[in-house]
Amino acid sequence: MERPARRRVPRRLRTPYAPALALALVAGGFAAWAGQDWYDAAHDDRAAYAVQRDRALAAGEQAVQNLNTLDHRDLDRGLDLWEASTTGELREQLTAGRDAFAGQVKEAETVSTARVLSGAVTELDDRAGRARVLVALRVTVRAADGTRTDKDSRMLGELTRTDGRWKLSALGQAPVGGAPAG
Amino acid sequence: MSTTRHHINRQRLRQARAARPRVVEVRPGTRRAAAPRGPEATAERASGPARPRARRPWGLVALCGLTVLLGAFAGWAHAEAESLRAEPARSNTALTDVARTSEVKGQVAEAVDRLFSYDHADPAAFDRAAKDLLTGKAVAQHRDLFTDVRERADARKAVITTAVTETAVERIDGDRARVLVYADQSSVATAGGKAEAEQDDGVYAAAMLAVDAVHRDGRWLVTALDTFGRT
After folding, report:
1. Which residue of A has its CA nearest to B105?
2. For residue B184, which of A25, A76, A149, A164 sits 20 to 30 Å off, Cα-Cα?
3. For the stretch B181-200, what's the b/e string if a residue is b when 16 or more beta carbons lie within 10 angstroms of its beta carbon?
């Protein structure tokens, strides 16, 4: 009895356009603000720089560890890894001296393993793709007779970014004895 | 008993009847313009041309849809921005904050120079350095590291000099920082066995350590010394 009467009420006139429009505008405002915020966060130069810093350090620590790890029973794999971790002059040196070095290690029958104690980036040129890292390293060498010796090394490494990847382009130990480093 | 049940039943029936049309009527006003479903709905759609389906406020529906979309985008963009900011790379301002990085480097290098140098003739300077520059567990660590060294240096009237050669900031997170330090240590004895003195003189020992520091009252204090398990 009630149903037909109710149905004929023109609901259209009661539709809340104004509040809906206001709500849409508020939502639009939020969307614009959040979008701008997101854009800023994604295009933060410092953040991009920080990401490069962490990438360079991770690559540097891994490369330094790789270059101080070698098993005489698996020389080829170890030396391939050396070459894969390096670039530029350092890679050329390693490639040139590879056979002679492999012979020495084979004869000495040593197994070297390295552990990174700590590492940090000292310089980073994001655009040029160059970085300098300090890596504190502990190298354990097991000789043919089974004796183990630990040696701590203060490594200085230079990294170059090639094809988007950071690789070691120079590696040495920090000089000892009052001489200024570098 | 029976009357009550009758009453309840009748009430339910009425409620059901009242609820049905309400569902149909609300539809044109709701945000979603979903077509009525089910056999019942089809029947009602066919019930007459008087149904207000043709007068559906599409503009309102579109407006509401837009609101939902914009709101969803805002929420999503906000979440994306937050997750970007939460990246660990960003909370570490080593190198990205150039001024702070060089400040930490400079002060930690100076602190290590002072904390690891000892002159038998001026032990007060050493104690003063420890008092000024150390805090927290670094106090005990420094004391443990130097108890023996100090005794030997006093006996031999030695001067131990430490010079930092390289520093690199691993991490700066607000008021806390960690710095990797390379230093050279030398000791010169002015008394004791000649052989011993000759052995030691001019010999540099390579040292490396990681220093945790906290920024307090405008300067960086050492909170922990990590010698990587070596003394």
Report:
1. A122
2. A149
3. bbbbbbbbbeeeeeeebeeb
pTM above 0.80, yes or no: no
Long-range contact list for B30-35, CB < 8 A, 24+ apart? B31/B61, B31/B64, B31/B65, B31/B68, B32/B61, B33/B58, B33/B61
The set of residues, in sequence order, having a beta carbon less than 8 Å from that of A129 and lying 6+ positions away, is: A160, A161, A162, A166
Of B55, B163, B168, the CB nearest to A121: B168
Which residues numbered 50-69 in A keep a CB inside 8 Å of some CB on B? 50-51, 53-54
Contacts of B165 in chain A (CB under 8 A): 174-175, 180-181
Is A142 touching B (CB cutoff 8 A)? no
pLDDT per residue as tens digits for the range B40-89: 444 444 444 455 555 677 888 888 999 999 999 999 999 999 988 888 88
Task: Give, in words, the CATH class of B93-226.
Answer: alpha beta
C-alpha R_g of chain A: 31
Query: Closest to B77 (Cβ–Cβ): which among A3, A37, A117?
Result: A37
